[in-house]
User: Fold these one by one.
Assistant:
Number 1:
Amino acid sequence: MTTHEGVGINVTVNGESRDAIIDVRETLVDFIRVDLGLTGTHVGCRTGDCGACTVTVDGEVVKSCLALGVSADKAEIRTIEGFAESSEHLSIIQTAFWEEFGFQCGYCLPGMLFCTEELLKKNPDPSEAEIREAIDGNLCRCTGYHGIIRAVRRAAEETSQAQREKDELRDEEVWARPGERVDRALRGRESES
Amino acid sequence: MILDRFEYLRPSNVDEVVTAITTEDEVAIISGGTWVVQQMGQHLRRPKVVVDLSAAGLSGVSTNQDTISIGPSTTYTQLLEAGDTPPFLRKVASGITGGIQIRNAGTIGGSACFAYPPSDAPGALVTLNATMVLRSGDGQRKVAATDFFLDALTTALRPGEFLEEILVPIADTERIFSYQKFRNVTGSTPIVTAGCIASEDGLAKRVVIGGAATTPVVVDLAGDESEDEIADLTRSLISHPWSDALANANYRRHTAGTMATRAVRAVREQIEGEER
Ligand SMILES: Cc1cc2nc3c(=O)[nH]c(=O)nc-3n(C[C@H](O)[C@H](O)[C@H](O)COP(=O)(O)OP(=O)(O)OC[C@H]3O[C@@H](n4cnc5c(N)ncnc54)[C@H](O)[C@@H]3O)c2cc1C
Ligand code: FES
Ligand code: FES
């Protein structure tokens, strides 16, 4: 059970198995950003207050600045890079954030997105108070939160809608939709500029 | 990156934990890590050995006859989800701030062992009449929660000893209770907490104040005091006040009186509601 610095670990990151030699002094967020090069996980405070470093470890939403990287040996990690269902299509939650102006710079998105996902898993129809409670471990310096709350509401509605349609229709048809909407939104923004 | 070098150990059972922490070197135990990892990052804590409890099987809530056993590494989320969690403790866990992420990582035992005066756990465990089971190479010893918290950031734990289990008597967990917490904004650290569980004869006879003093303060009552008497008595019992950047000692002492009356009022109202 003894390990010194420079130990070999194996983690599954966004579905991919990765071997790494890690200095035991590295926090999980540094391991993810520096060693794995996944810089979508941000650092805002290193005191557990801002939520920008949020990832999931074995399915649990956590702040990765408060854990040692070596503790994640053999764990399954999801970062914001693995949030979308595929690299072409944003997820329903991401699309809702896009459409409702739920972000500006995007620094806070790791915490906002993972907490929204966790909320909707447990509560598909959250009230505004429940949404505020679910995101309250995350600080956003840009939006003033109103857009975020609208985005979570919209994500809830669209997740339920997708579920209803999924129950009725064939799977592929439904799951293509949010991505198509993003493509449209992206095209719209390009043509504006 | 943490500056100082250390040896990292992840024991897989309680005996291995004992072996790992039995050393002359400075040890830091990691339960959820939400305090200790940031302290190491800020060089406030420079252990030579870091012992990670995550694989040691120290989480979970279970009932054995007349006691509820709580593993020290049980997270707030696990407390909220476990069927055997005392309702009072579930209420406490639901109010922990820092978001889903902190409730998923922070543990009841980590908070108890850190003994930070404004934290929820110290006062909550004293309210529940909990017993702390401490384990070392010399075996086990049991310490009442009231005797576990010795001073701010100081517990009865000796070098080479760790918190193995928290025991809560069931009898206390089934009665009417109230947990009142004052904080500056919803998301901030508690300033003062007040916990009250009705006595066996159905009265509000014991209030436990957290955050106002360096350790939880027990306010024993006859049960028929007026609210002013409760507030005055509570304030008079804060002999070692806690003071920090969020609130000074006078403010905390005053607030303690107010929160004690609120806790008693809430219990009395529920009792009256039941009698009606
Ligand atoms: C943003 C944020 C918000 C927070 N909000 C709250 C709040 O609302 N209320 C509140 O009370 N707290 C709050 N906290 C404080 C804290 O994170 C929690 O109280 C948490 O429960 C601490 O537990 P842990 O397991 O993470 O502790 P760790 O960091 O793992 O451990 C804390 C200390 O206890 C020691 N230790 C741990 N387990 C044992 C053991 N079994 N035996 C001996 N020693 C042990 C460690 O060595 C360390 O010194 C907050 C923290 C953050 C970052
Ligand atoms: S960097 Fe981890 S919570 Fe801010
Ligand atoms: S979008 Fe910039 S911090 Fe939230």
Number 2:
Amino acid sequence: MTTLTLQSVGVRLDHVTKRFSGGVVAVNDVSFSVPAGQLVTLLGPSGCGKTTTLRLIAGLEQANGGTLCIGERDVTNLPPHERGIGMVFQSYALFPHLSVFENIAYGLRLQKHTHAEIRASVEMVLHLMNLVGLDQRMPNQLSGGQQQRVALARALVLKPRALLLDEPLSNLDAKLRVQMRTEIRRLQRRLGITAVYVTHDQSEAMSLSDLVVVMNQGRVEQIGAPIQIYGTPASVFVADFIGRANFIETTIVAVDAERNRASVSVLGWTLNVPCSSEFRAGDEVYAVLRPEVIRLRDEEGLARGEVRQAIYLGSFVEYEIEVGSQTLVVLDYEPWASRIFSEGSQVGILFREENVHLLRSKG
Amino acid sequence: MPQLFSRWRRVDLWLIGAVGLGILFVLLFIIYPLFQVISISVYDEGHLTLKPWQEMLALRNWWVPLWNTILLATIVGITSTLTGFIFAYAMQRVALPFKGLFRALAILPIITPPFLLALAAILLFGRNGLITAGLFGVRTSAIFGLPGLVLTQTLSEMPVAFLVLAGMLGSLDTSLEEASATMGATPRQTFFRVIWPLMRPGLANSFLLAFISSVADFGNPMVIGGDYSVLSTAIYMRITGLYDPPGAAVLSVVLLVPSLIAFYLQSQWVGKRSYVTITGKSSGRSRPWNDKLISSGATFVVILWAMTTILLYGSILVGSFANVWGVDYTLTLRHYLFIENLGFEPYINSLILAVVSAPLTALIGLLMAYIFVRRPFPGRWLLEFGAMLSFAVPGTIIGVGYILAFNAPPLVLTGTATIIIISFIFRNMPVGIRAGIAALSQIDPSLEEASAVMGARLPTTLRRVVVPLIIPAIFSGLVFSFVRAITAISAVIFLVSPRWKLVTPAILAEINQGRFGVAAAYSTIVVVTMITAILIAYRVSRQMGTTLELQA
Ligand SMILES: Nc1ncnc2c1ncn2[C@@H]1O[C@H](COP(=O)(O)OP(=O)(O)OP(=O)(O)O)[C@@H](O)[C@H]1O
Ligand SMILES: [Mg+2]
């Protein structure tokens, strides 16, 4: 069985802007690049411009400004059918009047291949996508997951230079969603596809991506690997949108520029935390603490707080701890390792300086 | 199902009354007249006879009207579907300025008597036509017959095709077209491989609707048919010219065949083969990449069409003020004065009877819709069958049926206003029922159930719960019943009497006597009335916070 060989290329957006006729600026000066063979997710809240960005790459919308390259080629002014991309739609957009076979063969037929070539290519992706035996069905005779696979097969069979996916799993149930996303990731890695994947589900983004582009109100907030996005969010928005976070307002006391450390006072303790070079002494900042980096201990000599709420959720316990005027959310993923604190009890709070992340509180 | 019946009787005696009345009306005013028509063609003085049929078959060329009717309907089905599709495509997929204006012009023929277009075509292309004689100096009657009929019927059937197809195109998931583009299809390939095949059921539907409508059309063949004889006019001639009811009945039965076949196909076959999925996505977006040839072609057709429409209606307006059309275009009011001398009686009668019949139509339509949608009951098929017949049977046949059925005891109604109102109600009932069904689908059955549980009987439920929610749809049903009553011709032409003249037959009479100026003046009055009525209706429905649902 021959397998699919793709000529994947990178995708680059340079200061791309899209203004709709109503005056909505859906995409505002967006720049990022997708390295060849990698999967990049566009992540952000509803209405932030993810779909529009993807449609701009596909050529389904025309940019008002900026340039868009697929591989070496500037495609800013090319219509979609000349861009050599594949796209999977949220609704799958399978042609209801064509069988599975004909849906997959659609693009091949346009390219004037011989019957034998078309048959061979279609059979190959049917195998690849686990669709053998379904080729004569009509789309409405398929389950959601199968439709999803056909949509993917239909895009892949044309050997796209880049694959665009707009919330491809949002119509599936939770379990299938997890299964399909691993499948998509495996396939993407194996075939070396360049992929741009839109989602508003952060766990999907975290588990799939080489790079995540976090968007908000038409702008890019941060670009980075999942670990960077989560560990060192670039803005309050990102810290708040991805996972959960405690924000503690404070002021920088001193900066050690050589070692990239800053002295700040957090919960009454002066800490020496990592910081980037942009900070100066006197800056108003948030000290960001992820809920799971905080440990609760019974020991003396720690910052102390009172347990306001403790919710046992099986694999973890969620606490709300009041420390002075601050309420902290704490997630304990190892409740068996210490103990479950009851509401009203006093606890000591422990965390590592390395796990404190500083963010400017204004701008 | 006796068990169902008894349970249901306990629930509501009221409903039994309503259903009973409905069935009685359907039997009396739809089935019985039709039965009369059929029976008179095979039954004479107490015994079966085939004489009327033999007489017809003995005629040389007896098949010509049938053939002509079908040929015309087929051509018009194709032309109006194609133009309707082009129009719908332009409105839904091409960036065009003045879309509102184009839309209004495309739909105008719905609210005017259909044969006005025939009159206008004569004014423009007839012997003294502004374009034929005036512009090119040719005196020709070529417009009379098939060419004129195709032109005028296409113009009058196009709006329905347009509305059907625009609705369908609007609800077509645009991501299908986008998916096609991302797979390398040019806009033209997408048009022919995705849009066209997906629209096929809609195209078939609109073809059949136009076919049915063309077969039933009476006004245009009367005015511009010339020697091209079709069944509806042949029937009319049999009755009024030759006074040969059995002969008319035979032709009516012949006319029923294509109408019912087309209707059957339309309702049973096409209705169930639609791929359209409603996606809630905003439709009517024009995309950045369109095929130049297709969109400029569509734009060209739309503009040509709009200009033709303006020219046609404009010629009627101008014709109503021109001294002698084709000879002396000095402006004059004499045609209007002529009408004033004659009296505005037909116009006023039309208004009165339309105003009386519209609420009755809406009411009966609503009641029928309520019964269809909400209540299963024995004998319901009879109501549905009746409602279907009132749509499928050409007006001419109903007209013949009414004079056969109500000319003699037990029920003598000919010559009265009552029979005209009844014909309006039963001809327009489909509009009422459709409005009723649209209205009732707005409301959740649990609302009524809640009201019923709280002890309300059916009339109370209707008044307090159902009616307030459905006023908008009822209102558009009302408006279009009114419009159709004013513009009706095929059935009422048999039913008007010296006491009850109506405006459409009056205009037809003026045309037949060659008084085009008077006919144009009369037509102008009607068109102005209809446009005013529709504008008021739009304003009113805007104030109710809805939009008028267009119905054809
Ligand atoms: N065709 C259009 N015309 C006008 N405004 C539009 C159009 N398409 C999108 N928008 C607007 O642009 C903004 C971004 O829309 P977009 O569809 O890209 O959001 P999204 O990030 O994909 O959201 P979601 O997660 O809900 O799918 C929104 O404010 C939306 O209302
Ligand atoms: Mg989206």
